[in-house]
Every structure is written in structure tokens, then in C-alpha cells.
Amino acid sequence: MDCDYCYIYHHQDDSWQNMPRTMSDETVNALIENVSMLYERQHHKPLVVFHGGEPLLFGVRRFRSLVEKFVGRIPGVRLSIQTNGTIYNDQLEKLLLEYRDFLTFSLSVDGFREENDRHRLGLKGQSVFAKIEKTIRKSRQSGLLDNILIVVDTKNDPSKIFAFMVDAGAQTYNLILQDGDRKNLPPGKEALNSTEVGEWLTKLFYIYAQSDLKFRIQMFDEMVVGLLKKQRSVAFPPVTHLSCTMTIDTDGEIKQTDTFRVNANNADQITGSNVTTHSIFDSANSQQNIDFVLSTSSLVRDCRDCAYLNVCGGGYEQHRFDGVSYRNPSLYCSDYKLLFANMERIICP
């Protein structure tokens, strides 16, 4: 597929042009060994997410071997696959069922055919929704459809997006705002102080709040918890999106969260170290990575003084970039404030 909003292939970074299409066996084995060593040092179950591109282009047979090795080496390892839904067969379903205790299955799809085909088309511009729809149906029937990731597009009717959620039957839905930064605003965002996205999210939240259905919209649920704690003056520890999510590229290079690529070429690069020669632990704890995390997570005073800080955490780091620094409010700050105020009127009357 060639999704036109993809932060890997359609934004500021072009490092993908020099990457191998898939990981070599040497890189895969080094990665498994590396994550195993990381677990032994931190005694915390790692979460390994397979995504791309399309991770199942790796091949279902090779993917089974990968899962088997992770499960065999790391007690209680948590694995998740994020797939575009165009590759699904009996062999994959058997694997997902067999490793149900370790491996979750998540699809990326933006709604029914009309909504999904705005951005998520095949390499030749053709609709692939029929394949995705078949994957949704088969994985749901087998009890495997854990999550669907939906990228927000204000051109789509929120009521149709909710209808899609009802129809698809996933356990959880995860809304993602389109990537961009303060210098390069994403589609649907006319200006930094505009609130189109917040208005759209408010409409969807109103529908969700009035529903008695069992599925979860993760973004809204997490925001509700934060707003309830705020309303009841529950003390928070200081919160930002300060976390250590490492990306291992197809050539084995250890990088920061790859969504930073939306900001600049090689913006996610740390030290140039590779899993075949270095450890993830050492790269994560290197002074270069510590400096990077601190510089991208540092908040301006407006954020630190904001009543909603512990609901949004200042927003995602890549959305704060202005071409020079990450010490700015999120490009979605106005949208968040509008949404939070509207949510409070419902849940904290």
C-alpha cells in the first residue's frame, strides 16, 4: 500500500530509500538476543511491536519463526502486530490462535470503503478495501480482532466512523491524529489556533459517551480518567510523554521513536549503533539518547502551567517541533483544550 499520510514515506525523511526491504536473518537473531539481554537487565516484560511498512511482507512462515524465538527466549514477552489487513490467511490465523497469550492483532483502517480510500490505497492507486474487509470479518469470527487503529480525517463524518466501529467489532479502537509539526501543518489543520480537529473529536466523543456498547476508544478513555482525576483534585506525578520507545530499522540500526521522521531527515537517529554490534540497553542509556529525550520532552511554561497538562502530557513530541526546537505547545493544543472543555461538561457536570 501507499498511504499518503505515512510519516515514513511522505514527510521530511528519506532514509527509507537506503534501507533493505526486510530484516536479514542475522539482524533478526541479533534483535532477539538483544531484547532477551534487555529483559535480563531490567526484569520488565518488553513490548515488541511489529510494524512497517507492512510487517507481514516478511512472510508468514518467517514471522512464525520470529514469534517462536521471542516466546522461547523471553518469559512473558508481549508481542503485537500492526498490519494493514491486506495479508491474512489460514497460516497466520493458526499462528495468532496458537500464541494468543503473547501476540495481539491490530489492523490499520480508517473506516468504511469511502473513508478508508481517502488515504489508504494500493501502490497503483487502487482500492484494497475488499481485502481489508475480508480480514476484519475473518479475524473477528476467530476472536482475534483486538484493535483497529484509525487515523483522524476531519473530512470523514464522525457518525460514519462510529458506525464503522460498531460494524467492525474490534475490542478496542485507537484514534491517531495526523502527523505534522508547527512548521508543516497536517491536512485538516488550517492554523495553529484553529480547532477543526477538536470539534471533530468532540462530535465523536458525544456519540461514544451516549452509547452503551462494550468496545473501547482508547484515546477517549484515557482522557476521561485524566479529567476525572483533575476534577477531583487527585494528585498527579509530573507527566509528559517521557518514555523510551526504541525503533529497530530493517538494517538493524537502533533509533528513537520513528515518528520523529515527520520533523526532519534522520531526526530519529541516535548514535548509529546497530543490534548486530551494540546493545539496545546501552543505546537507550547513552548520553546521546538521554539528551535527545530530555530535549524533545522539555515543556514550555504555558504547558507546565496548563490545567490540562496531566490529561495530554503536552502532546506528542513530534507535534511540538517548529523547525528548530521541540519546546513548544503541540500543534493540536487548541484542539485539545476545546475537546477537554467539552468532555468536562459531560463527565463532570
Q: What does this molecule look like?
A:
The chain has 349 residues and is of the alpha/beta class. It is built from 13 helices and 9 strands. It has helices at residues 25-42, 60-73, 90-98, 113-116, 129-141, 158-168, 196-209, 218-231, 280-284, 287-297, 301-304, 309-312, 333-347, and strands at 47-50, 78-83, 103-108, 147-151, 172-176, 216-217, 247-248, 253-255, 269-274. The strands form 2 sheets. Strands 1-2-3-4-5-6 form a 6-stranded parallel beta sheet. The protein has a 3-stranded antiparallel beta sheet with strand order 7-8-9, covered by helices on one side. Helix 1 runs parallel beside helix 2 (60-73), helix 6 crosses helix 7 (196-209) and helix 7 runs parallel beside helix 13 (333-347). It is globular and about 55 Å long.
Low-confidence stretches: none
Strand order of the largest sheet: 1-2-3-4-5-6
Query: Would you list the SSEs in sequence order as H and E?
Result: HEHEHEHHEHEHEHEEEHHHHH
Counting helices, strands and paired strands, the structural category is alpha/beta
Overall, the morphology is globular
Overall pLDDT score: 92
Number of strands: 9
Oligomer: single chain
Helix content: 25-40%
Give structural attributes.
single chain, 349 residues, alpha/beta, 6-stranded parallel beta sheet
What's the layout of helices and strands?
Elements: H1 25-42, E1 47-50, H2 60-73, E2 78-83, H3 90-98, E3 103-108, H4 113-116, H5 129-141, E4 147-151, H6 158-168, E5 172-176, H7 196-209, E6 216-217, H8 218-231, E7 247-248, E8 253-255, E9 269-274, H9 280-284, H10 287-297, H11 301-304, H12 309-312, H13 333-347
Parallel strand pairs: 1-2, 2-3, 3-4, 4-5, 5-6
Antiparallel strand pairs: 7-8, 8-9
